[in-house]
C-alpha cells in the first residue's frame, strides 16, 4: 500500500534527487518548470488583480521559473517587467529556454528598477543558494522590501537556506512562498519560517512513489492518528500509570505536569513527594495520587511504567544521584529541566525503557556542548549520541529519534513562552508515553497538542490554561 508522504519534508539534496528521478522517468525539466511557474502565476492571480509587477530573476532555474511567471501573467494582460541578475546570454538549460520565450527586454538588477512595482516576484535564488547574498543583489532585495508591496517568493525567499532556514548574508521577507512537491526543512525552521510568510506547496507532477523511494527522514508533524483513545472495555490500569518526582519548592511545576498527563488520558498519576511538599500535593488536586514512600518502593510496582523527573526539581548531589539511578531502571523516563542540567557530561548508554529528553536551547548547550549545526541537525546528532529521543524546544520545536527521524513541530503561538509551559509539555508527554506510545511518537504528538492548546486559547494564555484546553483540542481529533 502506498504510504502517505504528504507531511515529509525534503532536504535541498533530496529535492534535486526528486527532480532528477522525475526527469529520468520521462517528465522533462522544462515541463516541471512550466508547472512550477504556472502554480506561482495561479497563486498570484487568485489573490491579486492585475497590477504593475516586477519579477526579479536570478541566473539559475529559480530565475527560469520567474520567466515562466512573467510570460503567463503577461498573457493574462498583466504589466510585467523583469530585472535579471547577470547576462541573458549566460542563462543555460531550461532557464535559457524560458528566457528565449520572453519577447521583451530585461533590465539589470538595481534598486531603481523596483520603483513602480505594485507586486514583486522573488525568483532570484531557490535551492541553489550557496553563499552569502551581497552587493547589488542585497541592495535590490532591500529596495524590494522597502517598496512595501506584496512579495511572492519562488521556492524559498532569496537568502534563506533551504535546509537550515538560516539567512545567508541577508534575506527577503515574503508574503507567500510557493514551493514545489514537498516543503523543505528550511520552510519550517526559524528564521526561514517567518521569512516565508504563508507556505504553499504546489504539485508539479513529481509522483508519490518517487518520494517513497527517497524515504525522507524529516517530517512536519500531523500525528493526530497516534492518539491513544480509551477503549470501551478498558480500565484505568490499561491507560498507564505515570510517576512524577515532585519538586520540593516549585510544586506548581509538578502539579501542572500531573494535570496535563491526566488530561491526555493517563489512567493514574502518582506524585512522589518528600518533606513539606508532601502536604502541599496532598491538599491540591484530588485526582492525583501522592506518596512519600521511598522512590524505589513506589517504582517496585511494574504498572508504574513511566517517570517524569525535572520540573521544579532543583539542583543538588542527592537529586543528581536520583536521576542517575533512574537511568539504570527499565522505566520509561522523561528528563526535563533541572534533571537535564545535572546530566551535563553524562556518558549516555542504551537503556531498557524509552528515554525522552526535553531541553530548551540553554539546557541543550549544557548537555551537548560540542554539537553544532542547524537546529534539526543538532537535535538529530544529540539523539544519536544520547540514544534517546530529543525534544529541542522553541518556537520551531524539533523532535529527533535515535534512528535519525526528525519532526519539526508547526503548532503553537508566542504565548507559550511563559512559566510552566514546559512543565505542561513534559506532563502531556508523560501521559502519552505511559499509555504505550514510544518516546518519539509521544513527543511528536505531545508537542503538537501543546501547540494546539495555545492556538485554541489564543491571546492571554497562561500555563494553567493548557490542561483545561486539552479536552477542546482532543475533541477536534475525534472522527
Ligand atoms: N530542477 C528542476 O527540475 C526544477 C527546479 N525548479 C527551480 O529551480 C530552482 C533551483 O535551480 P538552481 O539549481 O539552478 O538554483 P538557483 O536557486 O536558481 O540558484 C543557482 C544560481 O544562483 C547563483 N548563486 C547562488 N547563490 C548566490 C549568491 N549568494 N550570490 C550570487 N549568485 C548566487 C549560482 O551561481 P554559481 O554558484 O553557479 O556561481 C547559480 O547561478 C529551484 O529553487 C526551483 O525554483 C523548478 O523549476 C522545478 C523544477
Ligand atoms: K526565490
From TrEMBL:
<keyword id="KW-0067">ATP-binding</keyword>
<keyword id="KW-0511">Multifunctional enzyme</keyword>
<feature type="binding site">
    <location>
        <position position="253"/>
    </location>
    <ligand>
        <name>(6S)-NADPHX</name>
    </ligand>
</feature>
<feature type="binding site">
    <location>
        <position position="312"/>
    </location>
    <ligand>
        <name>(6S)-NADPHX</name>
    </ligand>
</feature>
<protein>
    <recommendedName>
        <fullName>Bifunctional NAD(P)H-hydrate repair enzyme</fullName>
        <ecNumber>4.2.1.136</ecNumber>
        <ecNumber>5.1.99.6</ecNumber>
    </recommendedName>
</protein>
<feature type="binding site">
    <location>
        <position position="158"/>
    </location>
    <ligand>
        <name>K(+)</name>
    </ligand>
</feature>
<keyword id="KW-0630">Potassium</keyword>
<feature type="binding site">
    <location>
        <position position="62"/>
    </location>
    <ligand>
        <name>K(+)</name>
    </ligand>
</feature>
<feature type="binding site">
    <location>
        <position position="360"/>
    </location>
    <ligand>
        <name>(6S)-NADPHX</name>
    </ligand>
</feature>
<dbReference type="Pfam" id="PF01256">
    <property type="entry name" value="Carb_kinase"/>
</dbReference>
<comment type="function">
    <text>Catalyzes the dehydration of the S-form of NAD(P)HX at the expense of ADP, which is converted to AMP. Together with NAD(P)HX epimerase, which catalyzes the epimerization of the S- and R-forms, the enzyme allows the repair of both epimers of NAD(P)HX, a damaged form of NAD(P)H that is a result of enzymatic or heat-dependent hydration.</text>
</comment>
<keyword id="KW-0413">Isomerase</keyword>
<feature type="binding site">
    <location>
        <position position="423"/>
    </location>
    <ligand>
        <name>(6S)-NADPHX</name>
    </ligand>
</feature>
<dbReference type="InterPro" id="IPR030677">
    <property type="entry name" value="Nnr"/>
</dbReference>
<dbReference type="Pfam" id="PF03853">
    <property type="entry name" value="YjeF_N"/>
</dbReference>
<dbReference type="InterPro" id="IPR029056">
    <property type="entry name" value="Ribokinase-like"/>
</dbReference>
<feature type="domain" description="YjeF N-terminal">
    <location>
        <begin position="15"/>
        <end position="212"/>
    </location>
</feature>
<comment type="subunit">
    <text>Homotetramer.</text>
</comment>
<dbReference type="GO" id="GO:0046496">
    <property type="term" value="P:nicotinamide nucleotide metabolic process"/>
</dbReference>
<keyword id="KW-0547">Nucleotide-binding</keyword>
<comment type="similarity">
    <text>Belongs to the NnrD/CARKD family.</text>
</comment>
<feature type="binding site">
    <location>
        <position position="155"/>
    </location>
    <ligand>
        <name>(6S)-NADPHX</name>
    </ligand>
</feature>
<feature type="domain" description="YjeF C-terminal">
    <location>
        <begin position="219"/>
        <end position="477"/>
    </location>
</feature>
<feature type="binding site">
    <location>
        <position position="422"/>
    </location>
    <ligand>
        <name>AMP</name>
    </ligand>
</feature>
<keyword id="KW-0479">Metal-binding</keyword>
<dbReference type="InterPro" id="IPR036652">
    <property type="entry name" value="YjeF_N_dom_sf"/>
</dbReference>
<feature type="binding site">
    <location>
        <begin position="393"/>
        <end position="397"/>
    </location>
    <ligand>
        <name>AMP</name>
    </ligand>
</feature>
<dbReference type="GO" id="GO:0046872">
    <property type="term" value="F:metal ion binding"/>
</dbReference>
<feature type="binding site">
    <location>
        <position position="122"/>
    </location>
    <ligand>
        <name>K(+)</name>
    </ligand>
</feature>
<keyword id="KW-0456">Lyase</keyword>
<dbReference type="GO" id="GO:0110051">
    <property type="term" value="P:metabolite repair"/>
</dbReference>
<feature type="binding site">
    <location>
        <begin position="126"/>
        <end position="132"/>
    </location>
    <ligand>
        <name>(6S)-NADPHX</name>
    </ligand>
</feature>
<keyword id="KW-0521">NADP</keyword>
<comment type="function">
    <text>Bifunctional enzyme that catalyzes the epimerization of the S- and R-forms of NAD(P)HX and the dehydration of the S-form of NAD(P)HX at the expense of ADP, which is converted to AMP. This allows the repair of both epimers of NAD(P)HX, a damaged form of NAD(P)H that is a result of enzymatic or heat-dependent hydration.</text>
</comment>
<comment type="similarity">
    <text>In the C-terminal section; belongs to the NnrD/CARKD family.</text>
</comment>
<dbReference type="GO" id="GO:0005524">
    <property type="term" value="F:ATP binding"/>
</dbReference>
<dbReference type="InterPro" id="IPR000631">
    <property type="entry name" value="CARKD"/>
</dbReference>
<feature type="binding site">
    <location>
        <begin position="61"/>
        <end position="65"/>
    </location>
    <ligand>
        <name>(6S)-NADPHX</name>
    </ligand>
</feature>
<keyword id="KW-0520">NAD</keyword>
<dbReference type="InterPro" id="IPR004443">
    <property type="entry name" value="YjeF_N_dom"/>
</dbReference>
<dbReference type="GO" id="GO:0052855">
    <property type="term" value="F:ADP-dependent NAD(P)H-hydrate dehydratase activity"/>
</dbReference>
<dbReference type="GO" id="GO:0052856">
    <property type="term" value="F:NAD(P)HX epimerase activity"/>
</dbReference>
